[in-house]
Amino acid sequence: MELRHTQREKELQQVIGQTRLVVEAEQQSEVERWRRLAQGKTRELEVFHLELDSILDVLREFQRQGVVIPAPGQASAVPFSWRT
């Protein structure tokens, strides 16, 4: 009887150990999935930031040249005008 109890306890400990390994592997997989997702979003933000910087560079060049761009909603037949 005692031997059966010891054997059953040993089996249960093995099942618990295997279950922990499976859970840890699943958690690690989930962490890795979220890490890859975050890295992808970071790359997207970097590209967006570069695009915004390019737009600002163009606008600064327009400003340097004296180009006036009307604000949205302003009625104008000409999309922009040159300052004289």
TrEMBL record:
Belongs to the CEP162 family. One of its GO terms (cellular component) is centriolar satellite. Keywords: Cilium biogenesis/degradation, Coiled coil, Cytoplasm, Cytoskeleton, Microtubule. It is found in: Cytoplasm, Cytoskeleton, Microtubule organizing center, Centrosome, Centriole. It comes from Oncorhynchus tshawytscha. GO terms for biological process: cilium assembly. Its main location: cytoplasm. This is Centrosomal protein of 162 kDa. It comes from the Eukaryota.
